[in-house]
Write a structure and sequence with these properties.
CATH class of the largest domain: Alpha Beta
CATH topology of the largest domain: Rossmann fold
Number of domains: 2
CATH architecture of the largest domain: 3-Layer(aba) Sandwich
Strand order of the largest sheet: 2-3-1-4-5
Number of strands: 9
Shape: globular
Radius of gyration: 21 Å
Structural class: alpha/beta
C-alpha cells in the first residue's frame, strides 16, 4: 500500500494538501489519532485499498512521539511517504487572524489556562520536530493555495523510489525556503531586470535565456553548481535521504534563478551515468508559481 502521511504546523496548508490527494483518487482521513493509524492501515489492507493519505497533527500532544516508530513498522510492508508542511511564524499568525480560528494547542488538557498563539506554534514545532527531520518538507509561507495544490500534484507523479532531487528557484526578497538543503546565491550575476526589454520576461522565456547564456559568469556559475551537486550526490543518497532540495536564489526569483534551475534540471535529467542510483526530479519556481492564476 502507498501510505502518505500529511503533517506539519497548523495553518500551513494540510487541508489543501489532503484535498489534492482526494482529487487524485486517494482514500483520505483527516485528524486521525496516532493510536489508530496501524488499525486503519490494517483495515484498508483487508479492503485491498492501494493508496491512502492521512493527515495527523499534534493536537493530541505527546502521543505524536510514538509516530516515528509506528511509521518504521509500517515501512516493513508498505511504501510510506511523510509530507511536512511548514510556514514562518508571522505567516501563521496572519492566517489564524484571517480565519479567526483557534490554534489546536491553544488550550492544553493539562493546563487550566490558555496559551498565546506564538506559544502554541512553538510548542507544536517542538512536538513535530522528529517528524520534520525524516519528511519531505514544503514551506508554504510565500505560496498560495493553488501553488501548493500544484506542487502536491507534481509530488504524486514521483514514485518515491531512491532519491528525488527538487530544484527550486526563489527570490531573496521573500526569504530562503525553509526546506532547502543546498542554497546557492546567484545575485552576483548580471540581472536582466535592469534591461527594460527583458524585465517583463522570466527565465522561462527565450529572450532572457539568450541573454544569460552569453555571459561567462553565468556559464561558470552553472558549471560550478553542477559539479558540486554531481560530486556530492552519492553521499546524500548514502545518508538515507529520500529528497534533496537544491534552492537557487536571485533578488526577485524571476530571471537568473529560474534560468539556472531549468538548466540544472535539464542537465541532470539527461544524465545516464549515475550507475545504480535511482533518481527522480521535481522543478519548482516559488515566485512564478505564486503568481495569481489567470482567469478567462
Amino acid at each position: 500500500m502507498q501510505i502518505n502521511l500529511i503533517t506539519g504546523i497548523s495553518g500551513s496548508g494540510k487541508s489543501v494538501a489532503l484535498r489534492a490527494f482526494e482529487d487524485a483518487g486517494y482514500d483520505c482521513v483527516d485528524n486521525l489519532p496516532v493510536s489508530l493509524l496501524e488499525n486503519l492501515i490494517s483495515t484498508l489492507e483487508n479492503e485491498q485499498c492501494a493508496q491512502v493519505a492521512v493527515a495527523i497533527d499534534a493536537r493530541r500532544g505527546q502521543s505524536i512521539a510514538d509516530l516515528p516508530s509506528i511509521l518504521e513498522n509500517l515501512r516493513k510492508n508498505n511504501q510510506v511517504r511523510v509530507i511536512f508542511l511548514n510556514a514562518d511564524t508571522n505567516t501563521l499568525i496572519q492566517r489564524f487572524s484571517e480565519t479567526r480560528r483557534r490554534h489546536p494547542l491553544s488550550t492544553s488538557s493539562t493546563q487550566s489556562q490558555s496559551t498565546t498563539l506564538i506559544e502554541a506554534i512553538d510548542n507544536e514545532r517542538n512536538l513535530l520536530e522528529p517528524l520534520r527531520a525524516q519528511a519531505h518538507s514544503i514551506d508554504t509561507s510565500n505560496i498560495p493555495a493553488h501553488a501548493l495544490r500544484s506542487w502536491i500534484q507534481d509530488l504524486l507523479k514521483d514514485r518515491s523510489v531512491g532519491l528525488t532531487i527538487v530544484f527550486e528557484s526563489f527570490g531573496f526578497k521573500k526569504g530562503v525556503p525553509s526546506e532547502a538543503d543546498l542554497v546557492f546565491d546567484v545575485r552576483c550575476l548580471p540581472n536582466p531586470h535592469y534591461d527594460k526589454i527583458l524585465r517583463p520576461h522570466t527565465g522561462n522565456d527565450k529572450p532572457v535565456q539568450e541573454f544569460l547564456e552569453k555571459i561567462p559568469e553565468v556559464v561558470n556559475m552553472e558549471a560550478d553548481i553542477t559539479q558540486f551537486i554531481y560530486r556530492w550526490l552519492p553521499h546524500y543518497l548514502a545518508d538515507g535521504r529520500s529528497y534533496l532540495t537544491v534552492a537557487i536564489g536571485c533578488t526577485g526569483g524571476q530571471h537568473r534563478s529560474v534560468y539556472l534551475v531549468n538548466r540544472l534540471s535539464q542537465y541532470f535529467r539527461a544524465q545516464k551515468d549515475f550507475g545504480n542510483l535511482q533518481l527522480s526530479f521535481l522543478d519548482r519556481h516559488r515566485e512564478l508559481d505564486s503568481m495569481p492564476v489567470a482567469r478567462p
